Structure formats: structure tokens, C-alpha cells
Amino acid sequence: MPLYKLEEFDPQYRETFDGHDVKALDLYTQGGEKIGSVADALVDPDGRFRYLVIQASGNALNKKILFPIGLSHIDYNVNRVFVDGLSKEQVQRLPEYKDSMTVDYDYEEEVRKVYRPETSNVAYNRDTYNYQQDSSLYNLDEQKNKTLRLYEERLVANKNRVKTGEVTVGKHIETETARVSVPIEKERVVIERVTPTNAGRVVSASEANFQEGEVARIEIYEETPEISKEAFVREEVRVTKVVDHETFEAQETIRREELDVTTEGNLPVDRTGM
Predict the structure, then answer these.
(1) Non-local CB neighbours of 148 within 8 Å, separated by 6+ positions
(2) What residues does the PRC-barrel domain cover (predicted)?
(3) What are phi and psi of 24, to 5 degrees?
(4) Which of 30, 38, 68, 200 could bridge to 137 as Cys pair (CB 3.0-4.6 Å)?
(5) Cα distance between residue 236 and residue 230, in whole Å
């Protein structure tokens, strides 16, 4: 089973662990002696912690080794990792870990042999091996650290843009009968016979001009109406879109888990953070 460095498996692992970084922790024995620091962690394809990569220092040899996660106790309150029974002799016997190497079954077996109880007489096979066979080395949650996660529901509001309608603005033609008045003039001839002022006066032969035929020509005119149509801009219609804002409030019933602690007898219980 391949193992991955923590950041290779989850580049955002700090966010996954609420800002905690296991690679920033120092390594101490249960007696309070600093024996190194955490350089990295190795996880399996399912994301389960299998080893802490320890930079051993101090009285131990100065080298990197693998430490099974089940033998450790991580305390983020003091930024420390406490280990059970890691001795200088064990560090000396452990194979050195290098960042460039690939951890395979054979290398893990060299590591496990150092941590397994000397009384163990279990036969291990590379084809059938699984980490449950060394549950004391890997099952951190089943040993000294039990994690109980409390969950709560939250309302998450999102918005979707949906089409609720459509407005079409166009134009059509309506017809009506219009009337217009135009004054026009028409000429006509009025012929009147009137009595001369000096009627009965004798005129000379030269004044009297007797002729036959046309005596006077008068041209008669009249106006005729000319009706045409012209187009004018009557009005303008502007079509725009405005956004009205309003707040939509929703109400739902959400659930939240609370911790119940029940003890029997006079037991000291540290309720830090409760």
C-alpha cells in the first residue's frame, strides 16, 4: 500500500485540521524530555495517518525516523507530541528515513520490528498483511485518543437567476380619416348694363367707332386644392431595464449536537473548552 506525505495527499491540510499543523510540533517523552520534532507525516490512500516523520535530536541520534501514529498523543494546546517508550536504542536500530525514498512493505517491516513487543510471535505475510494486524501501532483513535465530532447544521443561502417573463416592445400602424380645410378662390365674370352718365349726348363721327367682332377678353382663374401627406416625429419611447432590490427571508429548523458528559463516582474530568 503506497504512503503519501501529508502535503502531497492534501495540499490544504492545514484548513482540514482547522489551522493546526502537525509539522510544527515538538516531540516529547511522557516524562517531558524533548527528543526531536515532527518533520512530516505519512498517510495511506484513504487519508489515515500511519506514521509521523520524526527528526530525532538530543540524546538520540540525529536522523529522521518513522514513528507509528498509534504510539503518539498529539496535544495542540501545548503544540507537542508525546510518545510512549521511544528509547535511544530504538532510534539507533530504526532505519533512517529520507525524503526522497519510497516507503514499501520491506521498509515498513524493518520499522515495525523495532516497535513490536518482543513477545510477539505472529507470522506476517506481505501478500495478506494489513495494518489491523498491528493495531497497537496504528489505531490511534482506538487507544488513548478518542475523537468525538459534534456536528451542526447551518442555513446556506444561494441565488439562482431564473427567467420570470419577457417584455416585447414594438409598433404597429393604425389608420384614421383626417380632415383639413383649405380656402380657395374662383373668379367669375359679371356683365352689367348701366346707363351712361351723359346719356343722350351727341358724339362726333370720329368718336363713334362702330366695329363688329370681339370687343374685350377677360381671363378667368380659380384655385384648386392640393392635398399631400408628410411624416413627422410624434413622440419617442425609451425602453430601459431597472433592478429592484428586496431581501428574502427564509426560516428552517436546523439541528446542532451538544456534548453530554455523564460520570459515575468522584472522577476528575478536565472540561477544558466546554
Answers:
(1) 259
(2) 15-89
(3) -105, 10
(4) 68
(5) 18
> Are the CB atoms for 70 and 115 separated by under 8 Å?
no
On whether the CB atoms of residues 73 and 85 are closer than 8 A, the answer is no
Q: What secondary structure letter does DSSP report for 266?
A: S
Q: Residue 76 burial (CB < 10 Å; 0-12/13-18/19+)? A: middle
Residue in the structure block whose three cell numbers are 526522497: 100
**Distance from the Cα of residue 106 to its chain's centroid:** 46
CA 44 to CA 132: how far, in whole Å? 13
Does pLDDT of 270 surpass 90? no
> Nearest to residue 259, comparing CAs of 98, 109, 172, 146?
146
Per 3-state DSSP, the chain is made up of helix, strand and coil in percentages (nearest 5) of 15, 15, 70
CATH code for residues 4-137:
3.90.50.10
pLDDT at 148: 47
Place of cell 482506538: 142
pLDDT, tens digit, 9 for 90 and up, residues 169-223? 888 999 999 899 999 999 998 888 888 887 777 877 777 777 776 667 889 999 9
CA–CA dist 259, 262 (Å, integer): 10
